[in-house]
């Protein structure tokens, strides 16, 4: 049986259980399945948490970006701007709302002006 083919038909509880097994594995795989295959089927709050955890632990978080909720992305942008989270935002631009891109743009302008004074 190929669990990957079942994913679109599983309920949230089953998808969450699968994600848990993948994340708890030593090599980031469970029965040959990686978290990237499960992300489209996970609840957005769980994806937000996984992404945030990866960022805070210095792990690769780019796999999560297409699946972040708008709220999760907004919170990350805010935390970076407030100095609470130290990550580069460049890879996140394609997934940001226009509002967040505008906020980052003006933040960068202010930062450069302060730097040059």
* Principal-axis shape: elongated
Strand order of the main beta sheet, please? 1-2
Give the total of beta strands.
Answer: 2
Number of helices: 6
Q: Which segments are poorly predicted (pLDDT under 50) over 5 or more consecutive residues? A: none
Structural account:
- The chain has 117 residues and is mainly alpha-helical.
- It is 56% helix and 3% strand.
- It has six helices and two strands, in the order ααββαααα.
- It has a two-stranded antiparallel sheet.
- A hairpin with a 2-residue loop joins strand 1 and strand 2 (33-34).
Layout of strands and helices, then pairs:
Layout: H1 3-6, H2 12-24, E1 29-30, E2 33-34, H3 35-38, H4 44-56, H5 70-81, H6 98-116
Antiparallel strand pairs: 1-2
Compact overview of the structure:
The chain is mostly helical and 117 residues long. It has six helices and two strands; from the N terminus they run ααββαααα. The protein is elongated and about 65 Å long.
């Amino acid at each position: 049986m190929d669990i990957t083919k079942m994913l679109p038909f599983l309920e949230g509880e089953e998808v969450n259980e699968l994600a848990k097994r993948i994340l708890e594995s030593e090599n980031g795989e469970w029965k040959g399945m990686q978290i990237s295959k499960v992300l489209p089927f996970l609840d957005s709050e769980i994806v937000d948490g996984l992404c945030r955890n990866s960022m805070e632990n210095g792990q690769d978080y780019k796999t999560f970006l297409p699946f972040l909720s708008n709220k999760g992305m907004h919170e990350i942008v805010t935390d970076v701007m407030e100095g609470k989270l130290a990550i580069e935002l460049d890879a996140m631009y394609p997934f940001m709302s226009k509002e967040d891109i505008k906020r980052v743009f003006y933040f960068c302008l202010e930062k450069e002006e302060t730097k040059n004074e």
